[in-house]
Write a structure and sequence with these properties.
The complex is a heterodimer of chains A (291) and B (250). Chain A has 291 residues and is mainly α. Chain A has one domain (2-217). Chain A contains eleven helices and two strands. A two-stranded antiparallel ribbon of chain A has the order 1-2. Chain A is globular and about 60 Å long. The model of chain A has no long low-confidence stretch (mean pLDDT 91). With 250 residues, chain B is α/β, with parallel strands linked by helices. Chain B has eleven helices and ten strands. In chain B, strands 6-7-8-3-9-10 form a six-stranded mixed β-sheet, with helices on both faces. Chain B has a four-stranded antiparallel β-sheet with strand order 2-1-4-5. In chain B, strand 1 and strand 2 (23-34) form a beta hairpin. The chains are: A mainly alpha (291), B alpha/beta (250).
Chain lengths: 291, 250
C-alpha cells in the first residue's frame, strides 16, 4: 500500500500549495499584484513565531497568535500600503520587480538576523503514524489535509455566500463598476491582502514542523504556488486548489517512482504542457483584456 | 439655493472644466437639467458627453466650476454619497459582473443602501417589474443576451429609487427593437417622476423620445432647448457632418 502513503503525503503537500496558490491568485485578481515574494511570505510567519518564543519568552500557543497578528500587519497591511500601493501607480512590471526585491530582503534578512541553519519548529499535532490496511499514514499529513481543505472551503463559502464576499468578487471582476455601485473598493482590496496574509501564515504553521523553518524555504514554495495557480487556471479559486493538489501528488509520485533528482523538473514539465495546450489553465476561463 | 428648486431644475453644471491629465475635455460646460423630464445630450465624438457624466458622478475631479444637485453643491462627492443622495449612473457598454448570478448582480446595486432599506423587498419589487430577471435569477449574468444585460443594468440602478438616472449610450449594441424597449422603460420611469439624463450617439431616435435636448461641442454647451426644437434645428445635421457650430472668429 505504498501508493496510498504517497498519495496522502502528496495531497498534504498539495493542500499547502493550494493554500498559497489561492492567496497568490486572489492578490492578482483584486489588485494586479503578481507576488513573487509569496514563497517568502510562507517562510516568514514561522520565524515570527520562533522569534516571539525566543525573544519574548512566550509559550508556543501565544507565539502562534502573535505570529498570525504580525503576519496580518506585515504581510497584509504594510505590504499593501508601503509597497503595492506606491508601486502599482507605476504599472504592474515595477510592482512585480519590487516583490522580487522584497523576497530577497525577507530571505537575506532572516539569514542575517535570525539564523542561516534550519530551525526546528514545534509540531501542532503529534508526530505519530497510523497504520491503515498496512499503509503507514502520518497524523501530521492528515491534519494538514483537513485544516487546509477546511480553510479553503471556508474561504470559498465566505466569497460566495456573504455580501462582503460578493463585493470582493465584484471588485475582482470589474473594479470600475464596483466603485460606481458604491462598493468600498479600497477596503475590499485590503481584505484580500489580509486573507492572503492569513493563508500564508496558516501554510507556514502547517509546513514548518515537517520541513523545519529555514530562510530558503520560500524558493520552492513560491515557485510551486505560481505553477499551481497557472496550471489550475489563474482566474478561479477552485483552479488554484486543483492545481495545488495535482502538483503535490505529481511531485510525490515522481519522487517515488521516477527519480528524486527529477523531482524539481516535473512541475515545470506540467507548467510547459499546460501553457502549450491549455493556456487558460485546467479549470480556467479564457480571459480577454483590452490593452 | 432655493432658486434651482423653484425653476424646476434638478441638476445644474456651472462652468465645469474637466478632463484627463493636461487635456481638458469640458471647457466650461454649463447647462440645467429639468426635473422629471428626459434630457438627451448629443454632440460629435469628443464633445465631452461621457465626460459630463464622469464629472457629475465623481469619477473625474473638475478643475473648476460647480455641479449642483437639487441646489446642493455635489462637486467631487464620493460615489456612495451620490447614490445615497439619489443619483445613479449606468455607464456605456457592458456593466455586469459576468461570473455572479443575476440576483447577486442586482443585489450589488444596493450596496450603498442605508440601514432602513429592506433590500430583499426591493429586489423582489424590481423582479416583479422585469419578470425576465426573476426567470433568470440564478443564472450567471454572462449567459444573458445583450438586451437582457442592459435591462439588468437599468434594474440594478433602480434598486435605490434614484431621482436622477445618468445613462450613457443605452442603445449601443442593441437591435432597433430592443432600443425601443429600452427607451420605453426610460419613458416609464420619467412618467413616475424620475429625471433621466441620457447621452446618445443615436441622436434622432433619442431626441424623438426626449423632452429636452442639449448639444455639446468641443466641451461647451451650444444649444439647450426642447427636444423638438433641437430636432428641428438645421444646424444639427451640419454638426454631425463635421461643420462646427461656433461662430467664426473674426
Amino acid at each position: 500500500m505504498a501508493l496510498l502513503q504517497i498519495l496522502i503525503s502528496g495531497l498534504a503537500t498539495g493542500a499547502i500549495y493550494a493554500l498559497v496558490a489561492v492567496g497568490f491568485m486572489l492578490l492578482w485578481q483584486t489588485s494586479q499584484t503578481i507576488n513573487f515574494a509569496q514563497g517568502e511570505f510562507v517562510m516568514l510567519p514561522a520565524f515570527f513565531v520562533l522569534g516571539a518564543m525566543k525573544f519574548g519568552g512566550m509559550p508556543f500557543w501565544l507565539a502562534i497568535v502573535v505570529g498570525l497578528l504580525l503576519s496580518l500587519i506585515v504581510l497584509g497591511v504594510l505590504f499593501k500600503v508601503l509597497l503595492v500601493d506606491p508601486m502599482l501607480r507605476h504599472g504592474v512590471l515595477p510592482l512585480v520587480i519590487s516583490t522580487i526585491a522584497l523576497a530577497l530582503f525577507f530571505k537575506e534578512g532572516v539569514k542575517t538576523w535570525y539564523a542561516a541553519e534550519a530551525q526546528p519548529f514545534p509540531a501542532l499535532w503529534s508526530n505519530d503514524n497510523l497504520e491503515i490496511g498496512g499503509a503507514v499514514i502520518s497524523v501530521q499529513n492528515l491534519v494538514i489535509i483537513v485544516v487546509a481543505v477546511t480553510a479553503v472551503l471556508a474561504l470559498q463559502w465566505f466569497l460566495a455566500r456573504t455580501r462582503t464576499g460578493r463585493c470582493m468578487q465584484a471588485t475582482a471582476q470589474n473594479p470600475a463598476l464596483a466603485r460606481i455601485l458604491g462598493v468600498r473598493v479600497e477596503r475590499m482590496i485590503l481584505y484580500t491582502f489580509l486573507i492572503n496574509a492569513a493563508l500564508v501564515a496558516l501554510a507556514s504553521f502547517l509546513i514548518s514542523p515537517i520541513y523545519l523553518a529555514k530562510f530558503s524555504n520560500g524558493e520552492t514554495l513560491g515557485m510551486a504556488a505560481f505553477i499551481a495557480a497557472i496550471v489550475g487556471g489563474f482566474n478561479q479559486v477552485r483552479g488554484a486548489i486543483a492545481g495545488g493538489l495535482l502538483l503535490g501528488v505529481v511531485d510525490n509520485l515522481a519522487a517515488s517512482y521516477i527519480s528524486t533528482q527529477y523531482r524539481g523538473a516535473i512541475p515545470l514539465f506540467l507548467l510547459i504542457a499546460v501553457i502549450l495546450f491549455r493556456p487558460q489553465g485546467l479549470l480556467g476561463r479564457a480571459e480577454e483584456r483590452s490593452v | 439655493m432655493a432658486t434651482e428648486l423653484a425653476t424646476g431644475h434638478i441638476l445644474e453644471l456651472q462652468g465645469v472644466v474637466a478632463g484627463y491629465g493636461k487635456m481638458m475635455v469640458l471647457k466650461g460646460a454649463s447647462f440645467k437639467v429639468a426635473r422629471g423630464a428626459i434630457t438627451t445630450i448629443i454632440g460629435p465624438n469628443g464633445a465631452g458627453k461621457s465626460t459630463v457624466f464622469k464629472a457629475v458622478f465623481g469619477l473625474l475631479k473638475p478643475q473648476s466650476g460647480r455641479i449642483l444637485f437639487d441646489g446642493c453643491d455635489i462637486t467631487g462627492w464620493q460615489q456612495r454619497r451620490l447614490l445615497e443622495a439619489g443619483i445613479c449612473y449606468v455607464p456605456q457598454g457592458r456593466n455586469i459582473f459576468p461570473e455572479l448570478s443575476v440576483r447577486h448582480n442586482l443585489e450589488l446595486g444596493g450596496v450603498a443602501a442605508g440601514r432602513g432599506i429592506d433590500l430583499q423587498a426591493r429586489i423582489e419589487g424590481v423582479m416583479q417589474r422585469f419578470p425576465m430577471l426573476r426567470h433568470k435569477a440564478d443564472a450567471q449574468a454572462s449567459t444573458l443576451s445583450g438586451g437582457q444585460q442592459k435591462l439588468l443594468e437599468i434594474a440594478r440602478g433602480l434598486l435605490l429609487d434614484p431621482r436622477l438616472v445618468l445613462i450613457d449610450e443605452p442603445s449601443i449594441g442593441l437591435s432597433p427593437l430592443l432600443v425601443q424597449e429600452t427607451f420605453g422603460i426610460l419613458a416609464g420611469l420619467r412618467d413616475k417622476g424620475v429625471t433621466i439624463l441620457m447621452v446618445e450617439q443615436n441622436a434622432r431616435s433619442a431626441l424623438q423620445m426626449s423632452d429636452r435636448g442639449i448639444v455639446l461641442e468641443t466641451g461647451e454647451t451650444r444649444i439647450e432647448d426642447t427636444a423638438a426644437n433641437v430636432l428641428a434645428d438645421p444646424r444639427i445635421g451640419q454638426l454631425f457632418l463635421g461643420g462646427g457650430l461656433a461662430p467664426k472668429a473674426g
